[in-house]
Amino acid sequence: MHKIETKNVNFFYGENHALHDISLAMKANTITALIGPSGCGKSTYLRLLNRMNDLIDGTRLEGEILIDGENIYDKNTNAYDLRKNVGMVFQKPNPFPKSIFENVAYGLKVNGITDKAVIEERVHTSIQQVALWDEVKDKLKKSAFELSGGQQQRLCIARALAVQPSVLLMDEPTSALDPISTSKIEELLFELKNKYTIVIVTHNMQQAARASDNTAFFYMGRLIEMDKTKTIFTKPNQKQTEDYITGRFG
Amino acid sequence: MKKAQNLARKKSVSQNIAFTIFSLISYAIVALLVVILAFIVIKGMGVISWEFITEMPKNGMTEGGIFPAIVGTLCLVGVSMVFAFPIGILAAIYMNEYVKDGWVKQIIKQMTNNLAGVPSIVFGLFGMALFVNKLGFGDSILAGGLTLGLLVLPVVIRTTEEALKAIDDSFRQASTGLGASKWQTTSQVVFPIAFPNIITGLILSIGRVSGETAPILFTVAAYFLPKLPTSIFDQAMALPYHLYVIATSGTNIEASRAMAYGTALVLIVIVLISNLLANALRKYFGKKVKMN
């Protein structure tokens, strides 16, 4: 069974038909890169997977999106539970104005976990998972804003991991970071792949080529093609894909 | 070639003229403020003393101090804050975080703007009709404070709304993405980030409240009341009204002229202090939630 499955999805912002008939599937414990020029719908698609687009007024969805075989847009699906299972990391590091510890603990607390020992254990584990522990273990009580941009972004990943999701959505997670921080995050992706299914939107072709198993190319709200990353970057099926990855447009 | 040079010269000449005009206007504004302040300081400084600030007015308000007016103004500010801050902040949160874009939001927004445009004397009349008469509070700190609270409500709503609007949506999304409810997101993430800017707006509104005369005219202000209020149902003196009284209709206007300037100076200093406090608090809290 596929971890994430999208069947004939059309999505509208008011009158604007943003996604056209998207069908694709992702296996568990893979990294899928979504690429395409700005405004092609890749971020919109990503945000459908944790129902983040629900926050925008006047949107409408047709078709089905299944995670673990369940339609996440079903009436019986609880969006809060869904989002716990589908974590998200954003373009700019956006830690909350709280301490390093409280940032990671936040997701646990809003989900009603009050046992201090459990919280502490999960916070520590999550920070270790993103390879940030050695850098912050002595200053967990300090404000998260004291960290560098790259550290903040890893903290944001830890924050998402703390609520124990099985899917991790990343919306251009390294576009605001320097090359060294970027490579740290990419290394991290390989580690995390063992436990999570990762979907990453990126504008960086090398990143897509380096870090992902599969790549989906979006253009003008349509999925042009999706295949093994190696295939997409060596012998894509579609002319448009080739033009894009070789930099002829975009 | 020559044409291009001419054009460039023309441009730089007109630019210089424009800059000169703009800078002159800016300096003129600063100069105006300095002149007003200097005028009041020079005229009022003479009467400022410890006694002036801490004593009752004496001898038909031509001698003594303005202590009850200072206390009255502080009480009025206090009551108006207790009334306007919670209501204004909650209204702004509702408008910015909860209501969907649409006609409901438009109506609330338009009404808030209209409320901000109502002349303060109308607030005074309304306050008299509602709080003093209808609700039976009489001329009292409560009635005056509530009237001032109404007056400043749109200011509170607007500053809070601006502060909330300035927050990057990704903070809301990050919190929502962890399974937080709207209220958890608003109270635990959005509000703390907006707090430094909200508090600045609130304190600036205190400056506005403490200087208003018209709204307290019919609702609380006493012409002469040489004792301190003991409850919010008492009448009180207030600085702006006291200033008005001793400048226009006191028992001996000439004799109390210096006192009038002294009162104005005290009022200005109170507003100045609250503005400085606003800046200091914004810096203090701003550091705590510093954005990168």
TrEMBL record, chain A:
PROSITE patterns: ABC_TRANSPORTER_1, ABC_TRANSPORTER_2. GO terms for molecular function: ATP binding; ATP hydrolysis activity; phosphate transmembrane transporter activity. It is found in: Cell inner membrane. Its main location: membrane. Keywords: ATP-binding, Cell membrane, Membrane, Nucleotide-binding, Phosphate transport, Translocase, Transport. The keyword Membrane applies. It comes from the Bacteria. InterPro entries: AAA+_ATPase (IPR003593), ABC_transporter-like_ATP-bd (IPR003439), ABC_transporter-like_CS (IPR017871), P-loop_NTPase (IPR027417), PstB-like (IPR005670). Residues 4-245 form the ABC transporter domain. GO terms for biological process: phosphate ion transmembrane transport. It is a peripheral membrane protein. SMART domains: AAA. It holds the Pfam family ABC_tran. Part of the ABC transporter complex PstSACB involved in phosphate import. Responsible for energy coupling to the transport system. PANTHER family: ABC TRANSPORTER I FAMILY MEMBER 17. This is Phosphate ABC transporter ATP-binding protein. It comes from Flavobacterium agrisoli.
TrEMBL record, chain B:
Gene3D superfamilies: MetI-like. Residues 70-278 form the ABC transmembrane type-1 domain. One of its GO terms (biological process) is phosphate ion transmembrane transport. The keyword Membrane applies. It is a multi-pass membrane protein. GO terms for cellular component: plasma membrane. Its main location: membrane. One of its GO terms (molecular function) is phosphate transmembrane transporter activity. The chain crosses the membrane at residues 21-46, 66-94, 115-135, 141-157, 189-207, 258-281. PANTHER family: PHOSPHATE TRANSPORT SYSTEM PERMEASE PROTEIN PSTA-RELATED. Belongs to the binding-protein-dependent transport system permease family. CysTW subfamily. This is Phosphate transport system permease protein PstA. The gene is pstA.
